[in-house]
Design a protein that fits this description.
Distance between the termini: 18 Å
Strand content: 15-25%
Structural class: alpha/beta
Shape: globular
Number of strands: 25
Bound molecules: ligand 26Q
Largest sheet: 10 strands, mixed
Radius of gyration: 27 Å
Length: about 800
């Protein structure tokens, strides 16, 4: 049974029962938020039941299970997606209507589950959806952060961070499983001794934290599959009675508080953050709880240790959960008594690793002393892995000491997590063709020479049904009218839309759908934030985390130049354009926060200037998240993907925008290149240096000062930053651009400006623009997460269906 076979009558009965039984109110008196909870509880129960069935069928059939370990999952809201995938939206609408409420209004009561920072976390959520839709058994593992990604508030353009309290509305989706709690041990002393000729390790004086699992179910579309995301919550052992009885109340409770701090809050993405001990505790907490759970389930199914790699694939999402490797080794060595060689064999057949960045400064490393104190046994195992590994490189591969030290796991008192991941995984992949090539040429070049067969590429994909069918019903209806149903299940079929690029009636309808979505977005912004956005202006969108490599400041610099141009040419014809930004900055990233403040003030300056107002507008969206993104993507027309070539691993927002008919204005970076291959050069707006050109410019020596002094447009725009934008100046950004410009904003500026102007000309030719937009939608099939996950399943996880 793929679609849930329930009538609206059944749902009325089930919702009423939940209201009376769990919430304590009858339908006549219930408020909307109570209806939201009741409906969520009904859906959760259906999902739990479906997941149980799916799991028992796949286990009975002896199917291989995927375990996806990630410090981040960013599912956003669950209700709409669950109903859509179960095929229950209409019945639920009718049921609620009968009870006097509108389903659409209930969606608004659900908070985003924001247990991630951005791309990497959202990717994990998209993949859970795809696994379930393909009917492949998948378990996601992460942490039940009490506070997810901070809520962003702008005060005079300054980002301030507020705690994200999501559990009050979010926990209705979680099923606690306290019976499957796991004990995690930190610190203490580790000893080895010999008994009857065997080496026995013992561990004492450790502190204990309990990991309590909460499950979130994610159903597949028109499929029996349901993915289970298991989130671990840290629980202390309660009050220390000995201290309490002595009257030491602070001491009596403090151990408990320290233990529970582990799952309190998600670390905001900060690649430069010096190794914080709490982050390392979080990482081990996730890994130890998950490995224990995976192994228990494997053995409960009546399987042997030998069959572990045949029945389980463990994927580590970047290096954050890499301690799962030594943790599995620890259990197999110490608790199961296997030999090192057998354990190494099991581990290297089980683990696969995805890298999400080429930037060296973002590669994780930990102080070795810290690891030793916090996890003495894990440290010893890592040391032994490193010893054996380096010995092999020296003896079997005859590598030089320089090569060995670049590949070593322990070096100069630090632990290199990416090296551990590559050494112990059977597969290492990047997330776009370019990125996968670059990692073999830069950060992993020595590894690539020794074991080229490990390296592969799987280009990212997105949950197309969420980002198109659920987020953009108008466009979905148009596509269905053209090519019928069927593309929802098999997204590669969306290519059947391509011939409609010749059909003027379809193109006109496409334009109308876009305008409707722009109006919907403008109305929302007006009601919520009092912003007035003209739906007739071009919606030019850059939404992603704020980082210098993503170059929001290149966009801002160009807006400043347009502003100056308009001031000098007040009578000129100018296609009105609204630049929409949405981005959170890591709280400690000073330059990123300054860029936010500058963009905000550019918006103010323009609004205050009658000569420019109405033709240019800059909107900074506060607290950009998954739900806001679902509203914005359908309304977007230009997709800004302007990272310095060679820095953005893939990008996934670029795919969501393309799927909704936006035209990419971007560098030849990450997945932009593959978007270009799919749509053809005439349907994408590329500019700037290629990754190779960036490299050679760097090698020749890049001097941003030259661009500043020789290009009057650049000079005037940077000078404006310094002299004042809406009464504020941005000296540090101006200085950064002129003096170092690490991401070569000035080198790409001219080319970017020309691409912007070209986009304006194209937009003026409505038929041409609409045809380009349609070509983008029709070419987006390969960026569906179903395709990406099918690739992983076949080529990396050894799963078939
Ligand atoms: C590091 C140290 C301390 C705390 C947090 C972190 C941290 C957390 C998250 C470092 C990095 C991340 C996330 C990285 C990320 O999202 N990368 C993006 O992954 C996407 C999915 O593959 C790609 O599309 C993007 O190109 C890539 O930037």
């Amino acid at each position: 049974m793929n679609r849930q076979d329930l009538s609206s009558r059944d749902l009325v009965r089930m919702i009423t029962k939940k209201l009376m039984g769990d919430i304590g109110v009858g339908p006549a008196k219930a408020h909307e938020d109570q209806f939201y909870r009741a409906a969520a509880l009904v859906i959760k129960e259906l999902l739990a039941e479906k997941q149980r069935k799916f799991e028992s069928v796949t286990l009975a059939a002896g199917e291989k299970q995927l375990h996806y370990l990630s410090m981040e999952f960013l599912p956003g809201r669950s209700m709409k997606n669950a109903l859509y995938n179960l095929g229950l939206t209409t019945q639920m609408e009718e049921a609620l209507h009968e009870l006097g409420v509108e389903l659409d209004r209930l969606y608004g009561f659900e908070p985003d589950a924001g247990l991630g920072n951005g791309g990497l976390g959202r990717l994990a959520a998209c993949y859970m959806d795809a696994m379930a839709s393909l009917g492949l058994p998948a378990n996601g593992y992460s942490i039940l952060y009490e506070y997810g990604i901070f809520r962003q508030k702008l005060v005079e353009g300054r980002q301030t961070e507020l705690p994200d309290v999501w559990l009050p509305g979010g926990e209705v989706w979680l099923s606690p499983r306290p019976d499957q709690t796991v004990e995690i041990r930190f610190g203490g002393v580790e000893e080895e001794s010999w008994h009857d000729g065997r080496l026995i390790t013992s561990h004492r004086d450790y502190t204990r934290v309990m990991a309590v699992p909460y499950d979130l179910y994610m159903p597949g579309y028109d499929s029996p599959g349901v993915s289970r995301l298991r989130l671990w919550s840290a629980k202390g052992l309660g009050v220390d009675m000995a201290l309490f009885n002595r009257g030491d109340y602070a001491g009596a409770f403090s151990q408990n508080a320290i233990a529970e701090a582990v799952s309190k809050v998600l670390y905001p993405d900060d690649s430069h953050l010096e190794g914080r001990i709490l982050r390392l505790r979080q990482q081990y907490f996730l890994c130890a709880a998950s490995i224990s759970d995976i192994l228990r389930r494997h053995l409960d199914a009546g399987e042997s240790l030998e069959s572990f790699p045949q029945k389980n694939a463990i994927h580590i999402n970047d290096t954050h959960p890499v301690l799962a490797i030594p943790e599995l080794m620890r259990i197999l060595l110490d608790d199961c008594g296997l030999s090192w060689e057998r354990v190494w064999d099991i581990v290297t057949k089980t683990f696969a690793y995805t890298n999400h960045t080429v930037m060296r400064e973002a590669l994780e490393s930990w102080d070795e002393g810290l690891l030793q104190t916090l996890l003495p046994r894990i440290h010893r195992i890592v040391k032994e892995i490193d010893n054996r590994f380096c010995r092999r490189l020296r003896e079997d591969f005859h590598l030089s000491e320089a090569e060995i030290s670049s590949m070593a796991i322990l070096n100069g008192g630090r632990v290199y997590m990416a090296n551990l991941a590559v050494a112990a995984s059977h597969s290492v992949n990047g997330v776009s063709k370019l990125h996968s090539r670059l990692i073999t040429e830069t950060i992993f070049t020595d590894y690539f020479r020794v074991a080229p067969e490990k390296f592969t590429n799987v280009t990212n994909g997105i949950a197309s049904r969420r980002w198109l069918c659920q987020a953009n019903p108008g466009l979905t209806a148009l596509i269905t009218d053209c090519i019928g149903d069927g593309f929802q299940k098999d997204f590669s079929r969306i290519c059947a839309l391509a011939p409609f690029g010749q059909n003027q009636a379809v193109l006109v309808r496409l334009e109308e759908v876009k305008l409707d979505n722009k109006r919907r977005f403008s109305n929302y912004m007006a009601e919520r934030h009092g912003f007035l956005i003209d739906p007739a202006s071009v919606f030019d969108v850059q939404v992603k985390r704020l980082h210098e490599y993503k170059r929001q400041h290149l966009n801002a610099l160009h807006i400043l130049s347009s502003y100056l141009w308009l001031r000098e040419n007040p009578g000129a014809e100018f296609l009105p354009r609204t630049y929409i930004f949405g981005a959170k900055a890591a709280p400690g990233y000073v330059m990123a926060k300054e860029i936010i403040r500058m963009i905000y003030h550019i918006g103010r300056m323009i609004d205050a200037d009658p000569a420019v107002r109405g033709r240019l507008k800059v909107v900074y969206l506060e607290d950009y998240n998954v739900t806001l993104s679902e509203l914005l993507m359908p309304a977007s027309e230009i997709s800004e993907q302007i990272s310095l070539a060679g820095t953005e691993a893939s990008g996934t927002g670029n795919m969501k925008l393309m799927l909704n008919g936006a035209i990419t204005l971007g560098t030849r970076d990450g997945a932009n290149l593959e978007i270009g291959e799919a749509v053809g050069d005439e349907n994408i707006l590329n500019f700037g240096m290629t990754a190779d050109e960036v490299e050679s410019l760097r090698a020749r020596g890049y001097d941003p000062g030259l661009f500043y002094s020789e290009n009057p447009v650049i000079k005037a725009s940077i000078d404006l930053m310094e002299s004042g934008i809406a009464g504020e100046n941005f000296v540090s950004i101006a200085h950064n651009l002129r003096e170092t410009d690490p991401y070569m904003v000035l080198a790409d500026f001219d080319s970017y400006s020309r691409a912007q102007q070209f986009s304006t000309r194209l937009y003026g030719d409505r038929a041409r623009w609409n045809a380009m937009s349609l070509a983008n939608i029709a070419s987006s099939g390969i960026f569906c997460a179903d395709r990406a996950v099918a690739d992983y399943a076949r080529r990396i996880w050894g799963m078939t269906r």
